[in-house]
Amino acid sequence: MLRPTQRRLRAQSDMECVGYYGLQMSDEYTLTPAKTEHAEGIGRVIRDAIERINARDYPPAEINRLLRNFTTENVAALLEHRQTLVALVGEEIVGTGAIQGAEVKSVFVSPDWHRKGIGYALVCELEEMAASRGIETLEVSSSLFAKQFYSALGYIEKSRNFFGDEETVHMTKAIAPNQSS
Ligand SMILES: CC(C)(COP(=O)(O)OP(=O)(O)OC[C@H]1O[C@@H](n2cnc3c(N)ncnc32)[C@H](O)[C@@H]1OP(=O)(O)O)[C@@H](O)C(=O)NCCC(=O)NCCS
């Protein structure tokens, strides 16, 4: 069971979570399992990132569809069947990510907190959670924007998928030792 932990990316020598665990603590942010009362804050971070970042890559109708997926009510429902983490700065939610089966879902960081290692820390923690449940390979349907982020973490592009106007990048990563992607 994950306990609240604090992570620091900048101490890392690579981008694939190797040697990630057990780092010294950071005073910047804390990762903790999401609770029902986090649904409103999670939805706010996700919608903010969609409007300010993903809207550059997708048409308005697609963005509106995505925004509707992440109302507080819908996020609360997603929390029921996903293992979800939040990144907190003090009491403020600044990032989130989840695992559903063998899939990484909904990794979003508030645009005001990008490039500080929060996304990296979230995905590394999600990988640890998945590995502890015996999952050997993780998948993600990456947004166009996040492709380089996932590549930096060792995810490999397998295909491009289209859901209406939404183009996503299907990527995988072997998280068990001696597995290839
Ligand atoms: C993708 C996202 C979660 C990354 O979060 P983040 O906290 O900014 O990422 P990190 O700071 O941990 O980045 C780790 C590394 O990934 C790579 N990376 C991250 N963002 C990148 C970008 N925009 N362009 C190129 N590389 C990037 C870099 O190698 C980075 O290390 P560096 O900053 O030392 O160069 C964030 O940009 C985001 O929320 N995007 C909008 C929502 C989205 O598309 N989510 C994915 C849904 S599938």
Question: How would you characterize the overall build of this protein?
Answer:
This protein has an eight-stranded mixed β-sheet, with helices on both faces. It has helices at residues 39-52, 60-69, 72-81, 118-132, 147-152, and strands spanning 5-6, 30-33, 83-89, 92-100, 103-109, 137-142, 156-163, 166-174. It is an alpha+beta fold and 181 residues long. The longest helix has 15 residues, at 118-132. Helix 1 crosses helix 3. The protein has a domain at 5-10 and 25-135: Gcn5-related N-acetyltransferase (GNAT) (Aminopeptidase), CATH 3.40.630.30. It contains five helices and eight strands. The model is unreliable at 1-13 and 21-25 (pLDDT under 50). The protein is globular, with a radius of gyration of 15 Å. Bound molecules: coenzyme A (COA). Residues 9, 15, 49, 53-54, 107-109, 114-120, 142-143, 145-146, 148-149, 152 line the site of coenzyme A. Residues 9, 15, 49, 53-54, 107-109, 114-120, 142-143, 145-146, 148-149, 152 line the site of coenzyme A (COA).
**Topology order in helix (H) and strand (E) letters:** EEHHHEEEHEHEE
CATH architecture annotation name of one domain: 3-Layer(aba) Sandwich
> What is the class of one domain in the CATH system?
Alpha Beta
Mean pLDDT, all residues:
87
Going across the biggest sheet, name each strand in turn: 1-2-3-4-5-6-8-7
* CATH homologous superfamily heading of one domain: Gcn5-related N-acetyltransferase (GNAT)
Number of strands: 8
CATH names the topology of one domain as Aminopeptidase
Report the C-alpha radius of gyration, rounded: 15 Å
Largest sheet: 8 strands, mixed
Low-confidence stretches: 1-13, 21-25
**How helical, in percent, are the residues?**
25-40%
Beta percentage is 25-35%
Bound molecules: coenzyme A
How would you describe the shape? Answer: globular
End-to-end gap: 26 Å
- The secondary structure category is alpha+beta
Helical segment count: 5
